[in-house]
Amino acid sequence: MARLFSFKPTLTIKGRKFKGLRGFSGKPFHPPLTDFPITCYFLAAVFDVISYIAWQQDKPSIAHDFFVSGTHVIIAGLLVSVPTALTGFWDWLKSTPKHTQVWRTANTHMAIMLTVTAIVVVDVLMRLSGWDEGYAELGVTIISVVVGSLVSLGAAFGGTMVYEYAFNVEQDIDYAYTPSEEDRLPGQKAES
Questions:
Q1: What is the mean pLDDT of each run of 10 residues along the chain (192 residues)?
Q2: Are the CB atoms for 153 and 93 separated by under 8 Å?
Q3: pLDDT at 191
Q4: How far is CA 81 from CA 30, 52, 62, 115, 190, in A?
Q5: For residues 161 and 106, is the Cβ–Cβ distance under 8 A?
Q6: What string of DSSP letters covers the chain?
Q7: CB of 87 within 8 A of CB of 30?
């Protein structure tokens, strides 16, 4: 099985420097945390659209179920957005060179995501105040679609920093890309 799959280098923290709130070298905390709120906010928008349409088509049970599901996922996304924002801010503060293209892109990403978070708080409050209606009303649905769109845009800026600028990407070419039948951990060199 070891000849087909590699597990240990991905799952180990051995040989990785701990960087506090930023995570470990090669294993930052912010990027994997972002997946959860992005997915939750996008799903909440989809669920609210389904709920609103179902209500318009006189299907109150479906409308209610999707509204409840949308509420659960948007609240879950909001809860995870707290550590996501903290780790992202710490990355920005500790490793973004000021007045560079990556800094300006990070500022744009941060501004969009903080705006999304503020709108989500409003969305959640509207949901809870209209809970007895039993479906995603038009106002909630519009806000959720705006949130889903904005979070996708913000994610694109975050992705640009990683995939186009290689921001905060730490790599050891000898460790990562040398053909070998044996798994090596960070900091290990190939055997001669």
A1: 76 85 87 96 98 97 98 98 96 90 94 98 96 94 98 96 83 59 68 58
A2: no
A3: 62
A4: 10, 26, 28, 12, 40
A5: yes
A6: -TTT---HHHH--TT--B-GGGEETTEESHHHHHHHHHHHHHHHHHHHHHHHHHHHTT-HHHHHHHHHHHHHHHHHHHHHHHHHHHHHHHHHHHH--TTSHHHHHHHHHHHHHHHHHHHHHHHHHHHHHTGGG-S--HHHHHHHHHHHHHHHHHHHHHHIIIIIT-TT----HHHHHS--SS---TTPPPP-
A7: yes
Tokens 């780790």 belong to residue: 87
Instruction: Write out the two tokens for 109.
Output: 């990403």
Residue recorded with tokens 């694109």: 156
